[in-house]
Every structure is written in structure tokens, then in C-alpha cells.
Amino acid sequence: MQIKKETLQELNQQHLADHKKQFDFIALQIPNVENILQKLIAFQIAIPSWALGTGGTRFGRFPGGGEPSSLEEKIEDVGLLHSLNQSSGAISLHIPWDIPEDANAIKALAARYNLKFDAVNSNTFQDQPGQAFSYKYGSLQHVDANVRRQAIAHNIEVIKHGEALGSKALTVWLSDGSCFPGQLNFREAFKRTLESLQEIYKALPADWKIFIEYKAFEPNFYSMTVGDWGQSYLFSSKLGSKAYSLVDLGHHLPNANIEQIVSLLMMEDKLAGFHFNDSKYGDDDLTVGSIKPYQLFLIFKELVEGMDAKGLDHATDLAWMIDASHNVKDPLEDLLQSTEAIMIAYARALLVDATTLQQAQQENDVVKAQEILQSAFLTDVRPIIAEARMLSGGALRPLESFRVLNARGELIKVRGNKTLATGL
Ligand SMILES: [Mn+2]
User: Fold this and answer.
1) What is the per-residue pLDDT across 358-370, written as a single tens digit (0 to 9) for each?
2) Domain annotation for the chain: domains and CATH numbers
3) Which neighbouring-strand residues pair with 90?
4) 55 CA distance to ligand 1 centroid (A)?
5) Are 161 and 99 in contact (CB under 8 A)?
């Protein structure tokens, strides 16, 4: 489904007077609002190809209607999101769930929706039909060199697919680890994984990066071979300057101070970027900002401060992606909510008075430091984000527009009620 610009403009027109009042009110309080608008317009968050269908748990799956059943339809869905919010201008593919058969045609299709290809993701946590060796006991860490070779070859194949599409990074998330004490020699598993990653690293094109994603537990419940940022950092620093650590918000143990992790990884030039989601208990993959919006803001506060200290471009120098899964919501509505939550956290972080905060830190004025953060966090920045969206041709109210235009109903009409998207 494609939404015409004129249709959005008509919808926007209905809310324009209200919006203008709200925007003017907030704009008066922010000295550099133009600058903030430009940053928000430039900021794009990649949508993973596996999040466009209804997710499930190991207990069941309840697919909704009109889900995309091909890569082409997935690109169409991301295009739909992007036309509404103008902030979802990239798609991240998971191989082999979404293998581009004709890379040029897929590239052309994405270009029509103004979408870029973000990092490509390999998959050695599932066995595929016809695969010679099983990943039951790991992939890059496996004791059998045949399994490791197969997993290395798969990652190199994923790089080739990504190259054909114009991606510039490979994300490796390993489910490797052990479920019971004694199952694994930690050091040997680490060394085998490192050697395997080194083979993949050698196959990276000159302008590519490799992202090493970590996760504390699941599917292995005793040890994960890339279990935390320390282990990821060890791998990425041993691999070389093209290797970085990727932070998935749900991949930490409860109450981990993620903002501090982010700050230090950036200090060491080893932060790849993000997989955004939210969680209450573990890797819940809930809508971004639905549980802990203050934490998300604190992370963005570190990101903005750290990127500014390094002279990095907020929009392009780190990789931003949503990695969530939706059991009860319409996946597209959920992705609109997640994107909005990220933009809110980013905009609030841009409001932090960095100079005064630094002064408060120097003076050990703890109370003032907290006031500065909370004053930014408690600002309702939604009119600024809506203004940025409207300036770039999107909807003032993306979610409402999605519903008013009966987007899901239109997708069901074309695709039917019983489609199933590939993915988890
Ligand atoms: Mn992830």
C-alpha cells in the first residue's frame, strides 16, 4: 500500500491549527529549535525485516491478517511506515529468512520507497533445511571444525548478499554457549569463536564493519559465549578496527546500567549502534519506551554527549535499528510507536543543557545535575517531532493516519487474512 503525499497533506491539514499552537508554545522555550528540527529530520531508524509480521512466544503465535509474505512486501511495509513518519528510511535483512533473489530489482524497489539497506544479519542459531551440520551445540564455537566452517561460510555468504544491496555492515549474534555446567571449556570456546570470527573478518569488504552483538542468556541458560559487553569488547578489540560491539537493550541482566556501557564503548570507539526494544524481565522485545522511557532517555543523553565529544554525526556514524517482536499488536502500529519513542528520547537528549550539567558535575551539585536531566526528560517534545515529520513530508499523526486510512484493512484486501511472515 502506498500513501499519496496529497492524502497525508489533507490529513495534516485537519490538525494543523492545533499543531501550530503546540509547536509555537514549545519552540519559544527552546533557543536552538531549528537545529534540533534538522537533527530529527536526519535521524533514521532501520526496521528489521523480521518485525513486520506478528511475533510469537514458544507457547504460540497468533498471526494477524495482511502480513507480508515476501521480501518485496516487507519492503512495501517499511515504505509505508517511512511515508508516515519519515524516520524509518532503512531496512535490515536477516539471512536466510529474507534472501534477495534478484538484488538489483530489490534495490530498485527499496529506492522507490526511499529506503536504504542497513546491516545484514546472519543466522547460525537455527538449522535450515538441507544443512549438512547442526548448530545444536553452537556454531562459531563448535568443537567440530566442520560446523565452524559451515557457519563461517554462511556469514561470508550474508556479506555477499549485503554487498549486492549496498549494506555496509554484518551483524553477528551468536546463540552459542552452554546450558549446563561442565558442558563447555569457556576459554577453548572463546578461542574457537575468535578464530572463526577472524575468518569472517578477513572476508569483510574494505568499507564494511562487523557488529558483535552480545546477550546474557537464552537460548543457552548457563553460559553465553558472547554474554556481555566485556566479552563482546574482547572479541571486537581482538578482531580489529572494523569490529564493534552492538548493544541490544533487552540483552542485559536486569537493572544493568546500559547508559554507562554505552558511554564507555563510545569512549573506546567500539560502539556499533543499537537494537532498540524494551523489557520488564528479560529479552522481552517489547515496544521501545513502553516500560522504561527514562532509561531510554538516559541512554540517548550519553549517546548525544559521547557523539558530540567525538565529533560524530548522530544520524550516520552509529547504526540504529529496532529489534522487537509483537505478539498482540499490529506490527506496523507497534513499529510506529517504537520509532516515535526513539525520536522522543533523542529529542529530549538534545534538550539537555550540557554546559550547565558539566558545571554541576564539577561542583558536585548532585541536585542540580538531576534537575537538568529531569527538566529535559519532562519536556513534551512531541510537537517538535511532529513538526520535523511534517517538514519532511510525513504525517503529523502517523498512528492516527494509519488507522484513518485503514492501512491494515487495505493490506488484508490485497494479501489475505492468512499470511505468515518469515522470521521468529
Ligand atoms: Mn538484537
Assistant:
1) 999 999 999 999 9
2) 13-118+242-415 (3.20.20.150)
3) 46, 116
4) 14
5) yes
